[in-house]
Amino acid sequence: MDPRTGLPVVGMVGGGQLARMTHQAAIALGQSLRVLALTPEDGAALVAADVRYGDHTDLAALRTFAKGCDVVTFDHEHVPTEHIRALAAEGVPVHPGVDALIYAQDKRAMRERLSTLAPMPAWQPVNLPEDVVEFGDRVGWPVVLKAARGGYDGRGVWLVSDAQEATEQTARLIEAGTPLIVEERVALRRELAVQVARSPFGQVAAYPVVETVQREGICVEVLAPAPALPEALALRAQQLAIDIANALGVVGMLAVELFEVDGVGESGLVVNELAMRPHNSGHWTIEGARTSQFEQHLRAVLDYPMGETTLTAPAVVMANVLGGPDGGMSIDERLHHLFAADPGAKVHLYGKQVRPGRKIGHVTVLGDDMEDVRARAARAARWLREGK
Amino acid sequence: MDPRTGLPVVGMVGGGQLARMTHQAAIALGQSLRVLALTPEDGAALVAADVRYGDHTDLAALRTFAKGCDVVTFDHEHVPTEHIRALAAEGVPVHPGVDALIYAQDKRAMRERLSTLAPMPAWQPVNLPEDVVEFGDRVGWPVVLKAARGGYDGRGVWLVSDAQEATEQTARLIEAGTPLIVEERVALRRELAVQVARSPFGQVAAYPVVETVQREGICVEVLAPAPALPEALALRAQQLAIDIANALGVVGMLAVELFEVDGVGESGLVVNELAMRPHNSGHWTIEGARTSQFEQHLRAVLDYPMGETTLTAPAVVMANVLGGPDGGMSIDERLHHLFAADPGAKVHLYGKQVRPGRKIGHVTVLGDDMEDVRARAARAARWLREGK
Q1: Partner-chain contact B27 A23, CB within 8 Å
Q2: Percent of chain B scoring above 90 in pLDDT
Q3: Hey, what domains does chain A have and what are their CATH numbers?
Q4: Looking at chain A from residue 316 to 345, which residues have their Cβ under 8 Å from any Cβ of chain B?
Q5: ipTM confidence score
Q6: Which residues are bridge partners to A316 per DSSP?
Q7: Tens digits of per-residue pLDDT, A107-151?
Q8: Does the beta carbon of A258 lie under 8 angstroms from any beta carbon of chain B?
Q9: Which chain B residue lies closest to A349 (C-alpha atoms)?
Q10: Where does ATP bind (chains A, B) (predicted)?
Q11: Which helix (H) or strand (E) segment is A210 a member of?
């Protein structure tokens, strides 16, 4: 507890935009997020009052950071599993706990653990290049090779076309020490995501199912609710996420990324990935849901009762803002133009230097008509990216 | 400009809850509010990254603080007028400027300035106790004696019943050096408020008119929109606020507190007070309007185009949370109970130690039916105050 306020201190390992936006939510709850950042330029370090510096792979730094925290939680998946286990063994309340988090850190562990819980693409672990060739010959080419650990935003995922490419690519990655799995390339209709939050008490709150639109492996848009999703499929997706959260004992936010498919299993859904933290596919909740995923994550890890997850408008679209070409116009000027063009667009900038392709923020637009809202969000993101 | 982000640095003098909530809004805009606080326990100092310490009545401290700020603005009205004038003369962009702000700082100046602009209660300046007696005998007893400067939340306002009380009370206040005005006690139906924002460019955005419910001089509830307010009266109130903002050259948020009355002037409205900053009567905008008053204040002082001011729900109620009796239950426990009782209530705590009667936060509830929403907001505030 913070003696100045009588309210809890949540420590978040990692100082990126997720910590930055979690701090915003913490302020409303009377708290001040404690952040473990790498540098003073980290997005959260620019705005939070209680910033400590240290490397998330350094157990001593994590130990020092955890002192005085009521709960320790995470902005990313890159804290070594054994360090989290060590902290927990020393009595630090860590949420999500390592026995859950491991399935967000390690795709092989996740695929193994979910095999009896959820529909998934065909997959197998990779120890040798031959494993990939055998798998591709069996399920059909191309196949998807994935780093079991450390991938994000399209990194750590490789589409492999045939046996020769598989052999070369896999040999190179094994040589580099990358742990691998291989998956069938699913013929998907579209990608969906469900956010749920679970508290230590076991309360689970599920958000409406959303559609996530990817381009080159990076999420560019999230549509809430997922347009024209049959009610039965939406309920099945939410139930799947709730079942996973319960079975794995997740505490905090869980994002389940799904493929909507024809003819795989009976459900029309297969699980792609899990994240156990506020997630890009849930940024729309800041304005679009009664409780944002950031507030919900805090409520969950602190074992507060969960907040309402209902939509605040019939149609909500979040569009990521990537750094664009330097068109001689500063981000501040672009913001002026965007605000003039659309007074209703809500902007979230992460305090990052603009670099081409870098995720520097997002915009959210709310309204009654999904097509209209989607066009406005795309235009707003383009203003911030290109200044026109 | 902050070289790390390419975005502007707004400095806010004063570290209370208004600065705290403005910092939250600044984060979304990619900024980090620079705060001039008195102590590390100030609400904003607990959560902001860029906090400087100094007294707002110390010109040297203000000068140091202003260095590197793109704009300087205010969390309260207590910065000496001559200091603001000095800063502006030295080239510091100060918004609102002193020629506007004076009318929020000084009730006598405000009444004089608005005399040709807006309907107002009968009033007159007070130099001697006899002035009050003469005024009361003329307009009728009781009358309202007000400190021309420095009052808030019911402080600096005295209801005076007759000539004898007027003489004693006024003599005592004059003796203490309090500058005074006296006003008729208006037979009001209810209190209303309008928020508008104005930019240096001259763009003005008006929020829907709200009803403010006071108890013992302290605002306890704000209802948005003001229930059963005739459209014509609502438009007149908004136009009045826009006219005042333009005439005074306000930059930033302006809150115009109004009395709805019978038979005073032709408008059915008289102006009670002005505030030129985010104001308690506008806290409902955080969830209840598309653009919060805190974001709007930043946009205005930075000369960004204004954001949309439309309601996000048909009925929005903000209830202030006052510190209650110590019922053996911590604020954290009370929060648990509130969240269990109403998962949709939005809480804003200011990081203050709980003391009876102290404004420690507010709650906002949104919905379709004003009576229902109002009951929920009152109950939520009671949970946080009394734990039951």
Answers
A1: yes
A2: 90
A3: 10-94 (3.40.50.20), 122-184 (3.30.1490.20), 188-386 (3.30.470.20)
A4: 330-332, 335-336, 339-340, 343-344
A5: 0.96
A6: A224, A366
A7: 999 999 999 999 999 999 999 999 999 999 999 999 999 999 876
A8: no
A9: B30
A10: 107, 146, 183-186, 191, 272-273
A11: strand A210-215
